[in-house]
Design a protein that fits this description.
The complex is a heterodimer of chains A (278) and B (258).
Chain A: H1 2-9, H2 11-28, H3 30-33, H4 65-101, H5 103-117, H6 121-132, H7 136-163, H8 166-174, H9 178-214, H10 226-234, H11 245-276
Chain B: E1 2-12, E2 22-33, E3 38-43, H1 49-57, E4 64-69, E5 72-73, H2 74-80, E6 85-88, H3 102-107, H4 110-113, H5 119-129, H6 146-157, E7 164-168, H7 176-192, E8 196-201, H8 204-210, E9 213-218, E10 221-227, H9 237-257
Parallel strand pairs in B: 3-8, 3-9, 6-7, 7-8
Antiparallel strand pairs in B: 1-2, 1-4, 4-5, 9-10
Classes of the chains: A mainly alpha (278), B alpha/beta (258).
Protein name (chain B): ABC transporter ATP-binding protein
Keywords (chain B): ATP-binding, Nucleotide-binding, Transport
Family (chain B): Belongs to the ABC transporter superfamily.
Chain lengths: 278, 258
Amino acid sequence: MGTLNKLIQNRFAMICIIFLVTVVLTGFFAPWLAPHNPVDVNVKEKLAGISTTYPMGTDQLGRCILSRLLYGIRTTVLIAFITMAATIIIGTLIGGIAGLFRGKIDEIIMRICDIFMSFPSEVMILAIIGMMGPGITNIIIASIIAKWAWYTRMIRSIVIKYTDKNYIQFARVSGFSRWHIFRKHIMPNATGEIAVLATLDIGSVILMISALSFLGLGVQAPTPEWGMMLSEAKNVMIIHPGLMLPPGIAILFVVAAFNFLGDSLQDAYNVKHRKRWR
Amino acid sequence: MLEMKNVYKSYPKKGTGFRKEKLSVLADLSFQINTGEWVALLGESGSGKSTLGRLILGLEEADRGSLLLEGRNATAWRKENRGQMSVVFQDYTSSVNPAFRIKDIINEPLKVSCRNNCIRETTKSLMGKVGLPLSLLNRYPHELSGGQLQRICIARAIRTNPRFLVLDEAVSSLDISIQTQILDLLHQLKEEMDITCLFIAHNLQTVTYLCDHVIFLNERKIAEQIETKKLADVQSDYAKRLLASAVQFNGLDEELRI
């Protein structure tokens, strides 16, 4: 409750939360909110300006930009959430095992992580997508493969930090199993720190997905996605630069909101601990 | 109760690359503690006191030697007697889970050795035993003072009526007035309960108040083991030095008081 109270007291964090919740809800209710079908092509209305029929105008194929932006939330944010959730689960499981068991198991896991972390993540993602082909599922798989090692290492260090605490040592002396210690003592305390990691990183996942779609390696046409909207807009950048603004600004605001929220969460979490043992 | 024979313990040195150099912490340690005895382990910082405690608690493995509890291999004994060995650490702030309420902290050890129906029966008497009001049970650790927290740690440690208790500098980090209260509490527990105890300390006065035997640990080895009431007859140079420094300190203390 302490962390939550601190977060509620932070006005900027609350603005970020309200903004992100609104974005997610807008994406969820996109079929009801969008004025047009996002994939309907209407060449007669191509590159139309702002009007009551098309509140943000149309693109070079005459598709409603607002509708594509709203439906794009589903693709962009959903992929980011799935990627982050899967990476966190894998990182928590493997990092938890490494941190709890230590010894040879820890050594083997950490050396595998070293191998994965020795490649730049962008290069690894491009290589994986190059082998598997473009597509939503492949982006998610590639992102997880590129990120799991870093998360495993971070979560391992969090677990080790807690296993050195005396209450964990007491539980070990009392005869509790490692699973009980992980479930009852480590996870409830580590969840806050893992949430900070995830919130700070989800912005970069959104950027990465958008960048891959921009390069034509991610989400494929005609599925609306912010990175791909940018990619399509770049073809008419000279004659109609305004087309790049809606997806660009949307990415900017969502990524910034996640980053600010992550920072606020980190502050709230740290303050709580400083205050507890003052 | 406890018998240690020729125990060696070392830790790998950091930064030695592929060479497996080790730093010896305990060498050829042999001693025994009889049932119901309170034995003090005295020594300087870095003499291996806490490592010895961790070996007994099963938090570390010895390199060589044997550790027997009631005549049985210590690992097997611990598995068969869960909750029968307990510990109170020096640092009470990290000894309790900050996310747990006090009642959950105290009752946690019961989950390995007792069914839930005995929880309500003794929490009340246990809080009375350690001199704390029942109103603290629903509080969180950060709402308690250092002395109260250390009492909670002691209450948790004796929750399952353990047969063996390790007090790892349990009073060292408390201020003098609280130290006295905790020592009185421990003395009372010694009288009331049938517990064997290893009391790790570096203060001779607390040791003479509580313990039946004293083991002097110096440079990885046992310098001397002696009954507390025969402390004046120590033979080893280290024990003599330690006693002399304590006497000097007491003398200074007396002068200041005058």
